[in-house]
Amino acid sequence: MDKNHTTSEKVLITLRQIIRAIDIHSKYLFKCYGLSGPQLIILRELSSIPEISIGHLAQEISLSQATVTDILDRLEAKEFISRKRSSYDRRNVFVRITEKGKVVIGEKSCILNEDFTQKFNKLEDWEQTLILSSIQRIASMMETKKIIKKAGKNKKLKN
Length: 159
What we know:
Blueprint: H1 7-33, H2 37-47, E1 52-53, H3 54-61, H4 65-77, E2 81-85, E3 93-97, H5 99-107, H6 114-122, H7 125-141, H8 144-158
Antiparallel strand pairs: 1-3, 2-3
């Protein structure tokens, strides 16, 4: 990188490189498996729990509820997930992975870039924790939760 860039600019440039790598990997996943990265992330999250509300799922994976609902529509059409309205509060909808979804997630377990995962897992625990806390701090500084909420509200206004 250019020496004329400030440290904050170098961080933003590096984040753009990471975003690009994630985008390329997501396209690879779609080409190979017919599922997007976010679809696989949702299936993986659902495979670890019996059921979850859509709102809580959105929080767990840091996507807006509107985005998660759109993704769930596509997964439900493929019969990878099912939804059930709460018997106590009809406003709440719970989602769970189906057997067909479990089979798919078992076959396509390489959601993350395997090279990254292998290299990351070879790091010492303290290095992994340092990287995680640094990335979480950056996300906090960029106010990602506010942006996600705002994006969800704007999407609702447009519909």
